[in-house]
Amino acid sequence: MAVNKYSDDELYSMLKDPKTKEKGFKALLAQYGRGLYWHIRRIVIGHDDAEDAVQETSINIWKNIDAFRGNAEQLKSWIYRIATNESLQVLRKRTTFLQSVDDLGEVLTEELTTENPLDSEATERLFQEALLKLPTQQRIAFNLRYYDEMPYEQIAEITGKKVGVLKTNYHYAVDKIKSYLKEHA
Questions:
Q1: Residue where a domain stops, chosen among 64, 80, 97
Q2: Is the domain of 93 the same as that of 114?
Q3: Separation between Cα atoms, residue 163 and residue 144, nearest integer Å
Q4: Is 42 inside a domain boundary?
Q5: How far apart are the C-alpha atoms of 160 and 41, rounded to whole Å?
Q6: Which of 21, 98, 143, 175 could be 42's S-S partner, Cβ–Cβ 3.0 to 4.6 Å?
Q7: Helix, strand, or coil here: 38?
Q8: Torsion angle defined by CA atoms of residues 6, 41, 167 and 177, in that order, rounded to the nearest 10 degrees
């Protein structure tokens, strides 16, 4: 089944019209669902947690779309902000059950090596381990910039951080990843 590709303007119009809101929501999820999943997955690491966060993100989008006061150009940033917040919520819940952040890193590293054999190549595993060692804000800035190829201005809208802070977080993340890879390669 072919998925219709709508512009953000078309999606926005459909979501704001009560007659086409449901169709617009389905189209929005069809267009952004995969990207949201991977954005969330890179933050929470585990597939099950990512699926849960995607579900919660979808629910929050549906519940709050009428309250969205932005324009079509801000729609993607708004959606990614919800997804980022849901991802952070998953991490907060997880850390309440673990004794320290170091334990969280160990659990997530174990998930990486056992969850999907296709992802367990040595280089990919090392890269993912390096990402797990990053502080949360650096990891989010890195993921949005590197994987999602977002401009800093859009990342600022999503995270609520200043562009300068995001650039610093991104560059520190890159340096830490490089160091980790050199050290463990």
A1: 97
A2: no
A3: 13
A4: yes
A5: 21
A6: 143
A7: helix
A8: -140
CATH for 71:
1.10.1740.10
* Nearest residue to 46 via CA among 133, 119, 147: 119
- Calpha distance 95→49 (Å, rounded): 13
What single-letter DSSP state applies at residue 19?
T
Report CA-CA distances (Å) from 163 to 99, 137, 141: 33, 13, 10
Supply the pTM of this predicted model. Answer: 0.75
**What are 79-122's pLDDT values in tens digits?**
999 999 999 998 888 765 544 444 555 555 555 555 554 444 67
Residue 158 belongs to domain with CATH number:
1.10.10.10
Q: Give the tokens for residue 68.
A: 């969205």
Domain range for 107: 99-185
Query: Quick check: helix, strand or coil at residue 161?
Result: coil
Query: How far is 166 from 171, CA to CA, in rounded Å?
Result: 9
3-state helix vs strand vs coil in the chain, percent to 5: 80, 0, 20
87 plus 132 within the same structural domain = no
